[in-house]
DNA sequence: ATAATAGTGACAATAATTGTCGTGAATATA
DNA sequence: TATATTCACGACAATTATTGTCACTATTAT
């Protein structure tokens, strides 16, 4: 086997094994231990994080961030990766932010100039308008890691109704919706699946509880959103108002659209979400006519009056 | 220079030059032409699409889809690429669909099994809820290519008001908004910038008109028409207001963001757009403090008063 | 016809890789 | 403390890979 090929296979082998002895590899590859030693030194120079200990029970280990063997991509594949990462740029505090940036810079570095230009132009000419991000979610990476590896976390959560609480949870899934990140998790405090708004998680650290096997739950989030302390939200929408609301995912299932393009909203919502709906209806302006609830009308009036105050000639 | 390194550099060089002669490269790399010939044969075997012609004015060419030199990514970078592509899966018929799939499969192939499992679990546990896609846009790739390379297209467009028309356009930018894809383009029929809904483009083929230099237009809808009868728009934004405005493409170039996350808007706009800004600033609520112009303030006050009227208890 | 260009085969010169052996050093275990 | 295990390194010869040179062929534009 030519040396270069052996090095690549060695790279994959050590990545797979994580721990190994020099003699082992020498047998597998049918070369002398001296050669394996030299090879390992080369891998080390190529960036593979190898660590070794002498003595019985010693041996080699691959540490933390492993390095994949070099892969040759086509220009189209490289551009596709830029496209995908670019599409997500309106999401901030994403997991793997740093990693995507460093991956793209590796691609960029190996590209001929004309593709670089093409990518730069593409960035200026393509956009994914996504819901305005509302609230930072600094612990997303930790939550994702816990969801993927079935770990238990201790989180400090700031809920509107209960104030700040500390509890152990085992994350199940994460989803971005309307500019917020949500985390469904088994809550050891409430002994059931709950949904948490990630921007309200103030702190997340490893927990002590024994992880449950939650593999069957996954992404099913439909049934979890039962409103607590519900109020009935009703409104009429003009055609334009209907179009705007149709694109709001949380609302569209509750839209009753008529032949002429106008629609009605009729949905049970949590009383605690009135502040959100206040802003939402104000932004709809004259395209919506709210029927109820009264509390919401009052809140909107109050908000409008305050705004009007702000806009007095000063 | 060791052979492996020379091969990688050769790969980058031929990608950059696209056309070259063997003697040229031999000079650049200080090796004999015989060696370059052998090297080129190896590159060819590695997948670089080389083509050669003999005779004067002959030489080598790199065809269509070039191949980048092999790049070693870390496991984290690879996972980040999966994450990004996964995040876009609710968009169908995206440009670079096939390319991202083949890139990911290359990554997948070179990964140790435990990262594969990790990725498979992540796919089940992370979701990006985005606006329901409405309408297919089969010509996106063609439009993107035209926007990036400043090409003119002949499109068949089905508009509600005018029925089906054929016209030449030069695409400027593409954006996804609320489940639709839009294309801003210079329309040779209307002699101005227009926005087209991509799902209403029935056909797109190369056009005959001479491309214009539209490089200055890019993503900003604002500058498409230089403000006629301009007024100076100035406002201060809170941190949250800044975040919201940053995702507005037409606005973000005119945002002056401070250290603390707050920002100021300072831009010349057309007087005729005051109705638009009225709604926009109302939707920003208390996150924006408008400084001027007076007309806008007055319009906002009027609008707010009317809204307040609408929301009186009935 | 001539010059420019790619392409091939043979072989010697040169360079890189590998295996062998000797030696050493750290460390767990008996 | 002695011993087995394991990594580590240097020297050198044997082996293998790479390179350059040269001679030659083939194609094509001018």
UniProtKB/TrEMBL annotation, chains A, B:
Keywords: Transcription, Transcription regulation. Residues 3-62 form the HTH deoR-type domain. Gene3D superfamilies: Winged helix-like DNA-binding domain superfamily/Winged helix DNA-binding domain. SMART domains: HTH_DEOR. One of its GO terms (molecular function) is DNA-binding transcription factor activity. PANTHER family: PTHR34580, SLL5097 PROTEIN. This is YafY family transcriptional regulator. It comes from Paenibacillus whitsoniae.
